[in-house]
Write a structure and sequence with these properties.
The chain is of the alpha+beta class. The chain is built from 16 helices and 24 strands. The strands form 6 sheets. Strands 1, 2, 14, 15, 18 and 19 form a 6-stranded mixed sheet that branches. Strands 4, 5, 6, 7, 8 and 9 form a 6-stranded antiparallel sheet that branches. The radius of gyration is 26 Å and the shape is globular. 37% of the residues are buried.
Length: 552
């Protein structure tokens, strides 16, 4: 379906929106309240600071400080002023395309390292491998570079060349590469596969311009393989384009069913979205997994399916971003991202968490709950089938299953190795690469043996990360999962690594158990009602104050 406005996180990509008539004079107000007077007052303060403040300040920086201060005073973490560079990064996230070599990179052991070449990318075609250390780009050493430094040099127009020198495990001399950049597509569907019993699993990580097409293709492929139930994983999806959330929901709903509604102060922001086609997967029982990192457009999809009893929502309460942002173009390539509306689910609930309960990170998009926030009083609503659901403070799951959490012993081990900064992660990654290279006959699902764990412990000690053996052994589960995931990633692919991790994921396990007993959406709700007590009891072992088990 077509939605005329593209909305990000959600944000409407608007045209130029600039004041053109100067300041409007207000009549019938005091001089102090006159906009023109206030503008003169601001200019006077700015010039005084620029001319006479004890420390010299660049006038252009003062204007930026004033803008930032103004936006901060709105108390809205989603409204932000964007530089051209920040806008370009935003376009990569929402359009899902850029010119480059197509490799996931990270800084490991002080060097820019290939985590994985993207399938079909110039990196893969050229022969770059997971674990390759990029030591030079276009003749310049990358020692001390950040990942942002490397990204700025590796990206470029399609058809241009970049020269690399790579250090590889088992190769004595650096390997030279000359790679022709191509158009790189960042996939929204990171993982899609069929589990035993005909249960499909799809991990949707972002809503970019191709999300609905990717989701449709993944689901059609799984259906052709015999899928009879679906786990749709939105736990780590921060959102993206609203129109893609709407069209994704359209895949599962009947023509005419409401999906979402926007309400803003400007009449042009008030819109209602409904499904334009019939359910593409009628009768397919669906479990949607959500968690604290599920936000924005991902909550729109989850909320629509929950309101219409089309999917059972399982996991932990989502983030709670129920606002809409519009992008306004400003002079010199700058942009203003400003909240202009709120969105509501089909039954009329807003899932917006109060702003005083969230704090923004450095980019103003990823948010987390502020410590000590008071619990939100939840207003109750009813789904199409009469089930009770809640508004405010995120999407509340129909069945709450806690994420796997570190045990006290695992947390103690994690703290011990964290004292060494990123070194533990670097050693783990290097050990996984060497193990994968040294075991050519390894097969998926390989066992984490005592020999494997002993070898890693020795490598940790030789690398200067010394922990008591008893503490290491007590953290065997977590260390083993780390090793299995990293080795699988290095040996095969990110999808195989996700399969391996999911095999021990309690939320995925609960979703699969429910789906194996259900043959329709209505039966899924009945099974969940019967199994709720049992699954909640099993989930309690994962609850507590310890951090959630970090995912790869």
């Amino acid at each position: 379906m077509k939605v005329k406005r593209a909305v990000l996180a959600p944000t409407i990509i608007a045209g130029v929106a600039l004041a053109t008539g100067g300041w409007f004079l207000q009549r019938g107000v005091s001089e102090e309240g006159n906009v023109y007077t206030q503008a003169r007052l601001f200019e006077e303060v700015l010039h005084r600071i620029a001319d006479q403040y004890v420390d010299r300040k660049d006038p252009s920086s003062l204007y930026r400080m004033a803008i930032d201060g103004l936006l901060h005073e709105l108390g809205d973490p989603h409204t932000a002023f964007m530089t051209p560079e920040e806008y370009d990064n935003l376009k990569v996230q929402t359009q899902g395309e850029y010119g480059g070599i197509g490799s996931e990179i990270d800084k490991r052991d002080g060097w820019i390292t290939i985590v994985a070449p993207l399938p079909g990318s110039p990196s893969e075609r050229a022969g770059l491998m997971a674990g390759d250390r990029i030591i030079e780009i276009d003749g310049v050493s990358t020692r001390g570079w950040s990942t942002d430094d490397a990204v700025s040099k590796l990206r470029g127009p399609k058809g241009t060349k970049v020269k690399l020198k790579v250090a590889r495990v088992g190769v004595d001399e650096p390997i030279p590469f000359e790679i022709v950049r191509d158009e790189i597509h960042v996939r929204s569907v990171r993982t899609a596969y069929l589990m035993d019993g005909g249960i499909g699993y799809v991990e949707l990580r972002v809503f970019s311009e191709s999300t609905t097409d990717e989701l449709r293709k993944a689901l059609d492929d799984l259906r052709d393989q015999g899928m009879r139930g679906l786990v749709l994983d939105l736990r780590y999806n921060p959102g993206g384009l609203l129109d893609q959330a709407i069209s994704s929901a359209d895949l599962f709903l009947q023509r005419g069913q409401a999906i979402s509604e926007l309400r803003g102060r400007s009449a042009g922001m008030n819109q209602k979205f409904t499904a334009t086609s019939n359910d593409r997967y009628p009768g397919l029982p669906i479990v949607v997994l959500v968690g604290p990192s599920t936000a924005s457009a991902a909550e729109i999809l989850a909320g629509a399916l929950q309101d219409h009893d089309r999917a059972l929502v399982v996991g932990e309460t989502s983030f709670g971003k129920g606002s809409v942002q519009t992008l306004f173009q400003l002079p010199a390539g700058h942009w203003l991202k400003m909240t202009t509306a709120r969105w509501y689910t089909p039954v009329g609930r807003s899932i917006q968490r109060p702003y005083d309960e969230v704090v923004a990170d450095g980019e103003g998009d990823e948010l987390e709950e502020a410590e000590g926030a008071e619990p939100v009083e939840r207003e109750t609503y009813r789904t199409d089938g009469g089930r009770v659901i809640y508004g405010g403070g995120g999407i509340t799951p129909d069945l709450e299953i806690a994420a796997d959490r570190l045990t006290e012993e695992e947390l103690a081990f994690a703290r011990a190795v964290q004292k060494h900064g990123s070194k533990y992660r670097d050693v783990l990654y290097k050990y996984a690469i060497e193990y994968a290279h040294g075991h050519p006959n390894l097969t998926p699902g390989f066992a984490v043996t005592d020999e494997l764990l002993d070898g890693f412990y020795r490598v940790l000690a030789s690398s200067g990360i010394e922990v008591e053996r008893s503490l290491y052994d007590a953290a065997r589960r977590w260390v083993g999962q780390n090793l299995a995931s990293e080795i699988t990633y290095a040996k095969w692919s990110p999808q195989e690594a996700r399969k391996r991790w999911n095999a021990e994921d309690s939320q995925v396990e609960a979703a699969v158990r429910l789906l194996r007993e259900a043959t329709s959406p209505s039966e899924l709700f009945e099974v969940a009602a019967r199994r709720a007590g049992e699954l909640n009891e099993a989930s309690k072992k994962h609850a507590g104050e310890a951090p959630a088990l970090p995912r790869p």
